[in-house]
Each structure stands twice: as C-alpha cells, then as structure tokens.
Amino acid sequence: MTQTMSQKVNDDERRSARRAAILRHLHSVKNNSGTDVEKQLMKVNQLNAGQQVGKLEVLVLRRYPRRQIHSANYRGPVAAACGRDETGVVGLVLWGDQVDKVRTGDVIRISNGWCRRSHGELVVSSGRTGKLSVIQA
Which of the chain's termini has less CB crowding within 10 Å, N or C? Predict the structure, then answer.
C-alpha cells in the first residue's frame, strides 16, 4: 500500500516538474531575429472578451471529451479544454482535427484567434481564420 502511495506522489512530482520546465522553456526561447518571443506573446491575464488573440501559448491542463455539433454554421467534432500560462487559466475550444491533435500536457500556440466570455469565464479558440499548433508534446 505504501509503495503505491509513494509511486503516486513521485508521479505527481514528475508531472509538476515537467509542467514547470515547459513553462520556463516557453519564455526562454528566441526567434530567428534574436528578440524574445515572449515580447510578442499575449498572456492570459491580458485577454479581454471580444478581442482578437494575436499569439498565445498555453499548457493544456485538461481536454474534455469530444462531441458532435450539427448547426447551420458548423458540422463536426468539437471539444473543450483548459490551458494556463504563468499568469492564469483560460478555457479553450478545439474544432475539427484539433480535437485529436491536442492532448493533456501539450504546449499549444493559438495565432489569430478569438477570445469570448462563456458562462462568466474567458474562452479562446483559433476559430475559422486562426491557427492552432502543438509546439511541445
């Protein structure tokens, strides 16, 4: 019994250390011009409802189960998720092939997306015109 408990504690510590390392890495990366990528990135605490999201990088904390949407504007899979950076937590909406591409623990970048308020919380998505990419799995 104690072996199982200590193994669970060790697994939790490794996950926490991995998340911290990913977030540290995100903000130490340089782009080709030599300027900090961090200066170009938005932070979760800078998001406002109704605002376009230029570039946002978050660690995916959880991806919820997929569901099928059949509406006048969209037909296909959609899934909710939540992500965070060092400034806060934000909801995510994953569309189409993004649902299978994004996993818990991935670091993703959303470019040219949107931010809205749903049930009192901020939600971010790449939408139709933006782009979502997995930077680090």
Answer: N
Q: Which two tokens stand for residue 74?
A: 């969209």
Gap between the Cα atoms of 78 and 73, Å rounded: 13
pLDDT tens for the 137 residues of the chain, in order: 556 666 766 777 777 777 666 666 655 554 444 444 445 788 999 999 998 999 999 999 999 999 999 989 889 999 999 999 999 999 999 999 999 999 999 999 999 999 999 998 999 999 888 999 999 76
Per DSSP, the three-state class of 113 is strand
Total residue length of the chain? 137
- In angstroms, the CA 13 to CA 126 distance is 32
Q: Which two tokens stand for residue 20?
A: 């911290």
| CATH architecture assigned to 39-136 | Beta Barrel (2.40)
